[in-house]
Amino acid sequence: MSLLSWQRLASPRTLFRLLNPLTTHSIKLKPRAFHQNPLTKRFYAGDKKMVKYLTQSEAINVDQELFTSYRFSVDQLMELAGLSCAHAVAKCFPPESHSRVLVCCGPGNNGGDGLVCARHLSLMGYKPVIYYPKPTPKPLYEALSHQCQMMEICAVSECPSVEVAASQYDLIVDALFGFSFKPPVRADFVSVVELMQQTKLPIASVDIPSGWDVEKGRVNECDLEPALLISLTAPKLCARHFRGEHHYLGGRFVPPALQRKYELNLPVYPGNELCVKL
Known about the structure:
This protein has a single domain (72-277), classed as YjeF N-terminal domain (Rossmann fold, 3-Layer(aba) Sandwich). The strands form two sheets. The protein has an eight-stranded mixed sheet. A two-stranded antiparallel ribbon has the order 1-2. Strand 6 (171-175), helix 10 and strand 7 (203-206) form a beta-alpha-beta unit. The chain is α/β, with parallel strands linked by helices. Helix 5 crosses helix 7 (109-123). The chain starts with a helix and ends with a strand. It contains eleven helices and ten strands. It has helices at 3-10, 12-24, 38-41, 56-67, 74-92, 95-98, 109-123, 139-150, 162-168, 190-198, 256-261, and strands at residues 44-45, 49-50, 100-105, 127-131, 154-156, 171-175, 203-206, 228-232, 246-250, 275-277.
């Protein structure tokens, strides 16, 4: 090749013609999708900060500060929690399809939340029936029970069988045990826990699925799997093991300073909602 040919080949115009096909056709790369597994997704809400899952001792400390430093009363928080639960139930299981609700209440604050939830569900068009095997002999719980009676909410004295529950109810609200629970399940509640384990009805658990360890989740004697878990104040460690379809956070009452102290990173509640999906 002559020197003149090399010069022509190396000229800017020639190089442009040679390179033009490479530069005019852009290569489109598909972005790589990041697939979160269900467990990972549950750690993120609101502004994508990680929502803190509380240990049993942390949950107790947060509650105590609400009562002491912030001077919330037990019945005040119980009313807010139970109302939040009723709203979460209504979002997932509307009364048009799940009006007949068996509300199973335990002896402590979780049971009180259940009584409040039943009262509000009755005002939302549901037909709740309360099973309260071991009522707490304290004025607060007696008042909550009385309110339900005055609202013409029925109660049953015996735990229904799996067959009876299937024919009479559309949904079970599990409000037996809270975050102070430690296995095993006591004798008074074995039958109702067994019902919830064996039934095919959807179950909405308040804060802690009954029989679960607050931090470890399922234990050998209880493999209860609710369709809806309503965490209160902040989710507990056991919620990491929740595999149901609906996980909501209820309790739009935690003061900002308390959230910062425990680094709760709670999600933003949309609009005027009382619960938020996690």
